[in-house]
Amino acid sequence: MEQSTKKRMLSGIKPTGKLTLGNYIGAIKQFITYQEEYEMFVFIADLHSLTLPIEAKELRQNTKDLISIYLACGLDPEKVVLFKQSDVHEHAELGYIMLCNSYMGELSRMTQYKDKTSKLGENESIPTGIYIYPTLMAADIILYDPDFVPVGVDQKQHVELTRDLAERFNHKYSDTFKIPVPITAKTGAKINSLSNPEKKMSKSESDKGTVYLLEDVNIIRKKIMSAVTDSDNLVKYDPVNKPGISNLLVIASALSGDSVEDIASKYSTAGYGTFKKAVADIVCSELTTLQQKVKEIQSSGIIDKVLEEGAQKASYYARRKLSKVYRKIGLR
Ligand code: TYM
């Protein structure tokens, strides 16, 4: 395989539920910007979807939607290694080794783990998967020695843990892994819920606060028009006192490319109705185009081929790295 002189970048999304505008702005849009400049690896983190219960049929559909969205957004399989995590068995194998290289204390300190477990009922058991999840994520990353990992703010802590695990391994067994650096989008690293703008927009948050990339744009428009704001009627970026309006400004800025300041000054006295309509127009126009392309891709029959070729390319790197690890730790 040809060696690239470019810096390397890797990231992934789990096909747990329907993809949201948060995933799009916080992650996918970054991948698109970086694909020219970096040697990119982008994958579907399907093993991660098993950490909480999911129906086989739903997982299959989500996976198909996610790869279609990657392609529809403009990720080019000629430039980016696009693959499915479960097609490259080295992820699970190195995941186990990282698990054995981690401590229970550091895993239980992960914010996402604490959040998810706090939502479980008193008599519900904690699934082990959500506890050990960051060790698999670490393996996903360090198998490929990326320089950078573009993620939303919520995943930054997991990349930091990855750095600790990689450093620990390097220290114990000599230099093996590159230490990756997390990077977040300048605008949109945390898109909040429309109905609860102090909370992250997420696949598991409330439905009316979440914009799904593939849902009917009329519903999306309604959700944006009824986004929670405040009673000032002044469009201004102030995340502490005006989280709803600030969130809408960030969404509009991330999608239009105009700065938050420019948009705020354009609509400062226009009234919330006019401002929300402008945001809805921007979001709906971008998502209408995206949905059209997703349909074309799903009927084109190219998905299997893209994933097959991506898995072959990814396996080349993963195999070499894992056999190095196996030698160092004494399994070979
Ligand atoms: P996941 O699938 O929850 O989210 C995928 C990406 O979308 C970002 N994101 C957001 N960004 C801004 N605002 C939001 N509201 C928002 N919601 C989600 C996430 O930060 C993430 O970048 N563990 C990862 C998947 C993963 C991974 C990896 C990522 C597995 N292995 C290796 C990078 C490298 C996850 O659950 O992301």
List the helices and strands and how they pair.
Layout (H helix, E strand, L loop, with lengths): L7 E6 L7 H14 L4 E6 L11 H18 L6 E5 L5 H11 L3 H5 L2 H8 L9 H15 L5 E3 L2 H21 L7 E3 L33 H9 L17 H14 L3 H8 L4 H29 L2 H27 L3
Parallel strand pairs: 1-2, 2-3, 4-5
Helix pairs in contact: 2-11, 3-6, 3-12, 6-7, 8-11, 9-11
Characterize the structure shown.
- The protein contains twelve helices and five strands.
- It is mostly helical and 332 residues long.
- Strands 1-2-3 form a three-stranded parallel beta sheet.
- Strand 4, helix 7 (153-173) and strand 5 (181-183) form a beta-alpha-beta unit.
- The two termini are 24 Å apart.
- The relative contact order is 0.15.
Structural features:
mainly alpha, 12 helices, binds tryptophanyl-5'AMP, 5 strands, 332 residues, 7% strand
Overall outline:
globular
Major β-sheet annotation: 3 strands, parallel
- Please give the share of residues in helix: 40-55%
**Total strand segments:** 5
- Average pLDDT: 96
Relative strand content? 5-15%
Name the bound molecules.
tryptophanyl-5'AMP
How many DSSP H or I helices? 12
How do the SSEs run, as a string of H and E? EHEHEHHHHEHEHHHHH
Give me the Rg, rounded: 21 Å
User: Which structural category do the helix and sheet elements fall into?
Assistant: mainly alpha
Question: Quick gist of this model?
Answer:
By secondary structure, the chain is mostly helical.
